[in-house]
């Protein structure tokens, strides 16, 4: 009950400050499993797109939240967990160090023999060169997509920001490969592009007090990975679909 009450209060504050207008330009709001992917210019993007969704979609849609920011205080951890039902992801996870090499056993000592040495025999075939085995690859760190895959497998919709980090230009940065990986792993889930407008002016980087600015989220026509389409062409096409919503 407390989480629901705080959620309604937060929704009212966000809509008062931003309007949180949802514009369904390319698809209607529909209770089906979706991956919403949008531009990323502010930590408030998560709150904005969550507030723009109708209630029946908010209850089945989980935004992606960077753990190092959204879980660094008890309050932010509680609100992202209990109100937003967010999926935490790790940013900049380093792989664990490689295992140390095992020491080699010392060579067996051969005692000198008192027998006269036999004449050396020339080998009939040249010996094969010794090829050292390549060391095993270092173990990789945890898969940053694992929490997203788990959420999609359980039937939830998710909101992701394929740039991976906030941009400060007019257009989003190049999309990272996670969207393509999820789209190929879950080909039946609907991919919906979205453009978040003006939210960076509500909470500029380094500011604490938000400024009332009219904001909107425009949702575009769904897309999918075409047969034989490779990773970078798809990501560029998905990015172009997000940018195209800016002037709708």
Give the averaged pLDDT, no decimals. 79
Q: Which percent band covers the strand fraction?
A: 5-15%
Tally of DSSP helical segments: 9
Query: Based on DSSP secondary structure assignment, what is the total number of beta strands?
Result: 7
Could you name the ranges where pLDDT drops below 50 across 5 or more consecutive residues?
93-110
Spatial strand sequence of the major β-sheet: 1-7-6-2-5-3-4
Biggest beta sheet summary: 7 strands, mixed
Mass-distribution shape: globular
Q: Please compute the radius of gyration using only Cα atoms.
A: 28 Å
Label the structural class.
alpha/beta
From N to C, what is the helix and strand string?
A: HEEHHEHHEHEHEHEH
First-residue to last-residue Cα separation: 39 Å
Helix content: 25-40%
Written overview of the protein:
The protein has helices spanning 2-18, 45-52, 55-58, 67-70, 74-83, 146-153, 178-185, 199-202, 231-244, and strands at 21-24, 34-38, 61-66, 87-89, 157-160, 190-197, 216-219. Residues 93-110 have low confidence and may be disordered. The chain is built from nine helices and seven strands. The radius of gyration is 28 Å and the shape is globular. The protein has a seven-stranded mixed beta sheet, with helices on both faces.
């Amino acid at each position: 009950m407390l989480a629901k009450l705080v959620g309604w209060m937060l929704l009212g504050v966000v809509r008062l400050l931003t309007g949180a207008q949802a514009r369904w330009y390319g698809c209607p709001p529909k209770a089906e499993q979706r991956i919403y992917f949008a531009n990323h210019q502010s930590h408030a993007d998560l709150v904005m797109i969550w507030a723009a969704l109708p209630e029946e979609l908010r209850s089945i849609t989980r935004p992606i939240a960077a753990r190092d920011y959204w879980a660094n205080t008890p309050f932010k951890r509680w609100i992202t967990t209990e109100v937003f039902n967010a999926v935490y992801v790790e940013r900049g996870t380093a792989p664990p160090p490689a295992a140390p090499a095992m020491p080699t056993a010392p060579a067996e000592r051969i005692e000198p023999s008192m027998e006269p040495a036999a004449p050396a025999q020339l080998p009939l075939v040249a010996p094969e060169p010794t090829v050292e085995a390549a060391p095993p690859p270092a173990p990789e760190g945890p898969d940053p997509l694992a929490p997203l895959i788990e959420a999609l497998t359980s039937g939830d919709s998710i909101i992701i920001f394929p740039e991976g980090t906030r941009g400060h230009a007019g257009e989003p940065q190049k999309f990272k490969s996670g969207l393509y990986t999820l789209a190929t792993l879950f080909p039946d889930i609907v991919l919906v592009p979205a453009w978040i407008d003006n939210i960076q002016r509500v909470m500029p980087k380094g500011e604490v007090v938000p400024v009332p600015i009219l904001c909107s989220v425009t949702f575009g026509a769904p897309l999918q990975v075409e047969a034989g389409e490779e990773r970078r062409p798809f990501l560029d096409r998905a990015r172009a679909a997000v940018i195209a919503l800016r002037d709708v």
